[in-house]
Structure formats: C-alpha cells, structure tokens
Input
Amino acid sequence: MSRDEFLAPFDVVFDKLINNVFPSFNDDFGIRFFENQAYPKVDVIDLDDRVEVHAELPGIQKENVKVEVLDGILSISGGEFKETSDKSTERFLRKELKRSHFKRSFSLNEKLDENSVDASYDNGILKIKINKKEPVVKVAKSIDIK
Output
C-alpha cells in the first residue's frame, strides 16, 4: 500500500470532521477550503435542466473508473495505474501525480433525480449528467361539503 492510498481515507475523515465541527465554515468563507486537495478535480455546472460534473482523470482507462449513486450520494472511484518506469533507478525531485486508488463523493439534493444519472468518458474527462426533477406544482383540491 502506498502512502497516498494509506492517507486518502484520513482525508475523508478530516473533511467530515471539519464539516461537522464547523458546519458554517464553507458558507462563511465562500469556498470549500479543504476540498482543494481533493482528487479528482471537478467542475460542477448548473444548467437549466440538469447538473453536470466533469472530472479530470488523466491516465486512467475507462474500465478502471466507477460511478455509483446510493442514497443520494454520487461517488466516483477508480485507480489501477500502470507504472512504466523502473522504480529501482528513480529519484524524484518533485512528486505531484496521484498514482493510487481514489474515491470522491457528492451529495445530491432533493431537486436532482438520482435515477437519471448518465456518464460518459473521453480523453481523460469523465462527464456525469444528473437531470433535475420537474418541479411539483400543487393545486388546491376543492372538497364538496355535504
């Protein structure tokens, strides 16, 4: 197990701890401060009829990426990188590329239809589309008085 694989679960625990202890932190600062190191990097786009999540996954084959939705949580996971170099002669001057398994999750709010998730993958970019639910218009029902 690599250092990154070992530390990734602690990142999740730390993020949850910060969110539980300081629930208004993100609102107060207007950013998701601790998610800046999250992997994969994503763009979340709010469109009229859907929300799209674009995740950057360079060097990962489509077969090694998994997208799941369970109980209102969208999860992107994967890994299995193929190393091409000879580790016995490597000496890194800087190591920033993530080479371990990953998992990133997002809460889907009640306005999104978790049964309409669609995903595609092209050139290292995962695109996930989640349709918005049609707004329910409630109309008063007239009751006959007897």
Notes: Residues 1-7, 29-34 have pLDDT under 50 and may be disordered. Residues 39-82+94-133 form a domain with the Immunoglobulin-like fold (CATH 2.60.40.790). The beta strands are 42-46, 50-56, 65-70, 73-78, 102-107, 112-122, 125-132.
